[in-house]
Amino acid sequence: MPHIESWVPVPAGSDFSIYNLPYGAFSRPVSPARLGIAIGTQILDLHAVASAGLLDDICDRRVFLGGTLNAFLAEGREVWRRTRLRIAALLRTDEAGDPRLRALDTAKFLVNQRDVRMLLPIEIGDYVDFYSSIEHATNLGRIFRPNGEPLMENWRHLPIGYHGRASTVVIDGTPVVRPSGQRRPPGSSAPVFGPSTRLDIELEIGFVTGPGNAMGTAIPTSRAREHIFGLVLVNDWSARDIQAWEYQPLGPFLGKSFATTVSPWIVPLDALDPFALPSPAQDPQPLPYLQAGGRWAYDINLEVDLQTKRMRDAGIAPQTISRTNYKELYWNMAQQLAHVTINGTAIRPGDLYASGTISGSTADSCGSLIELTWNGERPIVLPDGERRTFLEDGDTIALRGWCAAGDFRIGFGSARGTISPAR
Amino acid sequence: MPHIESWVPVPAGSDFSIYNLPYGAFSRPVSPARLGIAIGTQILDLHAVASAGLLDDICDRRVFLGGTLNAFLAEGREVWRRTRLRIAALLRTDEAGDPRLRALDTAKFLVNQRDVRMLLPIEIGDYVDFYSSIEHATNLGRIFRPNGEPLMENWRHLPIGYHGRASTVVIDGTPVVRPSGQRRPPGSSAPVFGPSTRLDIELEIGFVTGPGNAMGTAIPTSRAREHIFGLVLVNDWSARDIQAWEYQPLGPFLGKSFATTVSPWIVPLDALDPFALPSPAQDPQPLPYLQAGGRWAYDINLEVDLQTKRMRDAGIAPQTISRTNYKELYWNMAQQLAHVTINGTAIRPGDLYASGTISGSTADSCGSLIELTWNGERPIVLPDGERRTFLEDGDTIALRGWCAAGDFRIGFGSARGTISPAR
To answer: Which of A100, A373, A415, B7 is packed most tightly, with the most Cβ within 10 A?
Structure first.
């Protein structure tokens, strides 16, 4: 990639280089939500940019004046591409730049990320969670069915998934109240009620959709790119004890529905193109509607950081408890979208489709505590001597994700949540 | 109940007596959606009523000027109650009536149901489908696990449910395209792709929510009534072959997500009060958070009508293939809502929570074809000699539901759908 300078300074190691330009929503105190694009430590205020007429040749400026991205998502790929190029041009300093923004009072177009609260930038229509990491599905099979085949018979034939709860998708930093519910203690015939004692995380990446399809029609893998806008980090918090008791025969429900945390920035697929790779081989070859040409794997580094309250109080930095990568996912986004719609299901702009837990092939590259501690048998030992199998009150989990090449970095920010005691 | 006359004529046997006053959304050709209330063969135009100032002392008239009920649902029970009393007063002819509407040009406030298209009256946030009929769950257990206990161990302890697809909830009369997908033929190790060959229905009733709760808090059964606005008929179309292959371990997904049909009218719970009954006994007694006092069963007659294309072409009336009643449902609405929120899940105005298939205890009172035909072993014989196990292209299913007492009736209209060939 050519080196491009932005007139907004980008500190070394920032997630938000000019190659990224992710979209989010923010609010200043007592102001309504606005859309913005992260650059370095700043946010470029899209409301201000659009109001100055700098996007009027691309689409109706009202697309940028609301508090969510849904109208922009509905515009489709050509508008996304032209907007991205324009924003880059307005920010770059070389001769390919567009000098109009710099000629104005730039302070009116930028806001410091420290001074705002980030908000969920999409109204989510439907939220689907897949189960697309073969390592994760295999690990869970080994833990729960130690004497059987770890993978179920259908797993290699279709991207298993289910509908999750849209109303409780929250932004980075939102506290997560420990859920209460029914669980059945080992050896007991009847359930008991109380706060979950096996509160877990799931490290995932989700894609956010653009234009929808008409109900009754499908989106083939060859057209998936037109319908996928970008990616976010997703933590699919999971209460394993509630889930274990409830999930037969209709799947996870209250074990998952209490909270799902996403990163504040949606990174456009266009920004991630330099990091696209061929997907892993699939055996057996999937049915034709699931065959996807092109480069649908993305080399995105992922990590999970844990900091307990005791660590925080003692000034001990968060401990990275897992490092993995999105690129090994068995089922890719194009296949997931083709599968969701093959029965005629309608998608809408702003749907969220999460990957499922992303686990690598080693013990320290798993995306959930149930795998990292092997169902609680091997506690994680933290720098201050604390041990963790599942999460305790006051624990903070932060997911991070980024692509890096040479001197630039394209990152997602973080998806953090701290566990509050059960009510 | 006292006899009340409406100045809008209500034909004998109409679903829409003055005791009903259900809410819906309609559009005339080239006009935007409006809210309305069914009365006899007419619709009282709520946009017109509100614009005439006849509801201004109850709440901001803008609540009634949009095309969906969500703002009204958010207002809460006192506004619902006062609006209902006002509409009844504006329509009744006795001395308890409010003469203001009759004094105006009433033609401007009424539209014939024949002249409009009905639209989905709510923007559905989350759609949940329960599994709350013990007869249905037992029947499916007997069919799929003939040598085991028909009911799973958790079934009597909690209202099993899962999240369904919100984007494909459609209104009465919308064609249903036969879904395609993967299924595994008996005896085969690999799946095949094609149109579903086991397309089924599920006769259900759903409740629509009013004001939401804050995330992290629960709605106890004692407060459920404040959060439940009214009921609709629901047909949870199901492709049994797709469902059977996909549903382990995360539950139904593409076997259900292609379409869910609801009746056009939301019948307020206040209208159904005269038909409320104590819920059936539960054994074992549920955990305290699921104990619900009050009368949460409703005596709603339900039927499923089937008309094939050949019957339609020959002028043969639809055949009623099942008659049942909502009142026997094991888990009631208050319990369902308390369960959904016990882990802190947020509900929102306009969520839809369906009961799950409602089956009675006899062979002809089941709410699905898989039960009525015992997994296809006992075809239904139709008046023209045709046989049905599962649905064929051109078949029309109509669900109907009503309460009846003396000279009045409170009905839901119908939830109809005709199967179009797979694309």
So the answer is: A415
Say what the pLDDT of residue A1 is: 65
- This complex has an ipTM of 0.97
Are the C-beta atoms of residues A318 and A306 closer than 8 Å to each other? yes
Q: How far is B164 from chain A (nearest CA, A)?
A: 6
Shortest CA distance from B216: residue in chain A: A177
Find chain B residues with C-beta within 8 A of A217's C-beta: 423
Cβ within 8 Å, pair B284-A190: yes
The DSSP H or E segment spanning A206 is strand A203-209
User: B324-351 pLDDT, tens per residue?
Assistant: 999 999 999 999 999 999 999 999 999 9
Average pLDDT over every residue of A194-209 = 98
Question: Do B23-119 and B127-420 agree at the fold level?
Answer: no
Tell me the residues of chain B between 241 and 270 that have a Cβ less than 8 Å away from chain A: 242, 245-254, 257-259
**Does the beta-carbon distance from B343 to A242 stay under 8 Å?**
yes
* The CATH number of domain B23-119 is 3.40.350.10: no
Of A247, A289, A345, the CB nearest to B167: A345
Instruction: Indicate the domain borders of chain A.
Output: 23-119, 127-420
What CATH number has the domain spanning B127-420? 3.90.850.10
The pLDDT-based confidence of A144 (bands split at 50, 70, 90) is: confident
Q: What are the backbone angles phi and psi of residue B344, rounded to the nearest 5°?
A: 95, 5
Q: Is omega for the bond preceding B252 within 30 degrees of 0, making it cis?
A: no
Q: pLDDT by residue (tens digit) across B219-271?
A: 999 999 999 999 999 999 999 999 999 999 999 999 999 999 999 999 999 99
